[in-house]
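Hallway conversation turned thread

IA: we were arguing at lunch whether anyone had actually written out Lon protease end to end. Turns out nobody had. So, for the record, here is the sequence (807 residues) and right after it the C-alpha cells. Reply here if something looks off.
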Amino acid sequence: MNDADYQQEPDLMPEDYEQHSPALADDVLPETLHLVPIPHRPFFPGQVQPVAINPQEWGATLKAVAKAGHGLVGLIYVEPHEPDSTAIGEFPEIGCVVRLHRPSSSQDGAGHFLAQGIKRFRIVRWLSDAPPYRAQVEYPRSRGDRDSDEVKAYAMAVIKEIKELLPLSPLYSEELKQYLANFSISEPGKLADFSAALTTAGGDKLQEVLSTLPLVARMDKVLVLLRRERELAELQGQITSQVNEKVSAQQRTFFLREQLKVIQKELGISKDDRSTDVELFEERLDALEPTEAVTKRIDDELQKLSVLETGSPEYGVTRNYLDWATQVPWGITSTDHLDLKHARTVLNEHHDGLDDVKKRILEFLAVGAFKGEISGSILLLVGPPGVGKTSIGRSVADALGRKFYRFSLGGMRDEAEIKGHRRTYIGAMPGKFVQALKDVGVSNPVIMLDEIDKIGASFQGDPASALLEVLDPEQNSEFLDHYLDLRLDLSKVLFVCTANQLDTIPGPLLDRMEVLRLSGYVAQEKLVIARNHLWPKMLERHGLRDDQLKINEAALRYVIESYCREAGVRDLEKQLARIMRKAVLELVESDAKKIRVGKKDIETLLGKPIFHPEKLLRGAGVATGLAWTAMGGATLAIESSQVHTLNRGFKLTGRLGETMKESADIAYSYVVAHLKDYGCDLDFFDTSMVHLHVPEGATPKDGPSAGVTMATALISLARNERIKRPLAMTGELTLTGQVLPVGGIREKVIAARRIKIPELILPFANRRDFEELPDYLREGLTVHFARSYREVFEFAFHEHRNDKSLH
Ligand SMILES: Nc1ncnc2c1ncn2[C@@H]1O[C@H](COP(=O)(O)OP(=O)(O)OP(=O)(O)O)[C@@H](O)[C@H]1O
C-alpha cells in the first residue's frame, strides 16, 4: 500500500460505513486475512485510531495488503510475554478487521497508520502460522434481538452510564462527548463496542467483550467495565481535588512564607522571635561553665519557653528570666595578677601620700600572693569625702588585673535591692550583685560598696542583714538571689567597702571587715596631689596641653587655703576645673597661645576667697577644742561668760547634741567641785549666771571629746585668765577628773595643723595613736598627754614642762 492508494480512499466516519459503504459490506470482506498481532488492547469495530505496524517486521504483510488493494488487515490482540515468542496457540479466536490509512502527517517508513475498525472476524483456519500470519476467517454477526426490550434496556443502561461517566473525566474530548451523546439504542452492538473501547480496562477484559457475540452478554460485560470506569473516574476526581487542595494549601503557605520573609527582611528580623531567643540563650550558655543545677534550671526554662505563646505575658517573664540567667558569668573568672611590684607601682602612680593605706593594701595583697588567692577578706576604707577611697579601690582592682564594679548603698532600704525580687512580682529584677556580675562578665571582680555606713532599714526589710549574707565568707559561696532562685558563688569577689564613719556601720558587718583609715590631707599633701594628679587630670579632661596652661605653686596654695577647706580634695578638684573652664574661654576668645596662672589671678578666676585664715578666739573664758566628724577633723572654739552676778545659773547654747550637753554638765559640776584646786574664787559660781556657747560652724556638735575643753573654758572664766598660747585640746572628762581617750586623733591633728596651732593637749591613752602618725604630721608640734584634768590645767595655764611634751 502506498500513499496514493489510501489517499484515493474516502475517509469515512465509522458510523457511516455500514450504511453508506456497500463496498465494505460483509459479503465483500475477504475470506482470508493477513493478521497482525497488536499488544495492550484489542481493536473494536467502529473504532478509528492510529496503530503502529513496524514495516521491517511486517513488511511482507503490508505489501500483500497493498497488493490486494482493499487495505484490509486483521488486528488480533496478543500480549507478548516475550518479544517475538508469540505462538499462534495464544492468539484469541476473534479479532477485528481494519482498513489501514496512512495519516497525512506520517513519514514513509515510520509504520504509522490510521486504522478504521470494520468488523469482527473469527479465525477459521490458519494459513500461515508464522509471520507473516495469514488465516482463513469468517465474520460472525452479533447475536440477539436488537429490538427486544431487554437489549433496549441494556442499551439505555449503557447510555446512562456513559452520560454519567463523561462529565467525570477530562480525558474525553468535547467532540467525543457530543458524538457519544448521539448514540442511539437502536445500535446496541456498536454501542457496546464503542463503550468498551472507551474504557481504560485491561486488554483481556476488552478481548472478552470483543469475543462475546450475544448482545445482552456483551452489554452486560460493558456495563461492568463502565461502572468500574466510573468508579475509577470518581476516584481520580477525588485524588485530583485532594492534590489540588494540597497543592493550593502548599502554594498558599509558600506564598505567605515568601511574604513573611520579605517583611522580616524589611524589618531587619530574619527569624521568628522564639527561635532567635532560644538560639541566643543557648549560644550564651555554651560560652559559660554553669553547675549542673544551674544548667538543669536553665534547660527547664528553655523548655518552657519553647511551648509558650510568644505574645503571652508568661513568655515575656520567662524570656526575661533567661536573659538574666544566661548573662551571669557562671564559672567564668579572670586570672589574678598577684605581682607585688606591679601593685606597688599602680598604687604609687595613682596616689600621692596615703603611705600607711598603701602599705596595708600591699600587705593584704602579699597574703593573697602567698596563699595563691584573694578571697575571704573585705576591705573597708573609712574617711571623709574626697580623700581617695574610691580611687584606691579602683587601683586595687587595677593592680590585681580584676574588673571593677561600684555601687552605692547610701539610702538603700529595700532588701530586694541586694537579694532581688521574687519572680512573681511584675517588673521583678535580680539584686545588685547579679547585676554587677552581669556587667563585668566575670565572677571574681572587685566590687566596691560605697557608703556602707548609710545603709538603712525599713519595713521593706533590712538590707544590712542581707549584705551580711553577701559578705560572710561562710555563706557567700551559696548566695541565693530571689529572682534567679539559683545559688551564686560570690566567694571569689573581692569586696571593698567605703564609709565616712564607723559609728553607724552595723557591728556584725564591721566585724568582718579590715578597716583602712584615710583621714584627710594637710595643705602640703593637697599641694602635691594637686600638682601631680588633679591638675594633669583636669588638663586632659579639658583638652588642654600642659604648655597651654600653667599654674604656679603660690596660686595652688592660695586655692587650697582660701577656697577649699576640706579634708579631701574633691572641692579642690572642682576649683581647678573652674580655673580650667575660664582659661579655655580666654584661650578661645583672646587668641592667646598660653596662659600662666599666678596667685594674683586667682581672685579674678574664682571670685572672692571663701575662707579667711582662721583666727583663734582668745580671751578669758575661751578654749579651743578639736572635733572629729565624718567630714574630717575641725577646731571647735568654746566660749563662756559671766552673764550677771544676781544668781547662780548655767546656760548652754550652740545646738549641742545630747552627749555634748552632758559633757558640759559634767565639766560644770567638776569645775564647781574643784574651785579650790584650780585657784578660783570659791563663790564665783554661786553668784554667777554662766553661759557656755559653742559658736556656729559646719561641724555637727556631738560627742564626749569636748569635756576637757569646756572645763578649761570655765576655769579660765573663773580665774579670769586667758590661755596665753595658741593651744588646742581634746579629751573626755569624767566627774572625778579623769581624761579618757577619744577617736580621730589623726583628723584632729590635721585640723590643728591646718590652722597652724602648734601645741596640743591629748588624752594620755591616745599617745600611741599620735606616735603612729607619719612624721610629717607630728613634725613641729608640741603635744602634751594628760591622764587627769589636773594635768590639763597644768599644761594650759602654766608654762609647759618640757619633760612631758613631745616634739
Ligand atoms: N592621695 C591621692 N592621690 C591622688 N589623687 C587623689 C588622692 N586622694 C584623692 N585623689 C583624687 O581625688 C578625687 C576624689 O577622690 P575619690 O572619689 O576617690 O574620693 P572618695 O574618698 O571616694 O570620696 P567619696 O567618699 O565622696 O566617694 C579623685 O579624683 C582622686 O583621684
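OS: looked through it. Residues 351-354, 383, 385-391, 498, 529, 533, 568-570, 573 surround adenosine-5'-triphosphate (CB under 6 Å).
IA: good, adding that to the notes. Residues 1-26, 800-807 have pLDDT under 50 and may be disordered.
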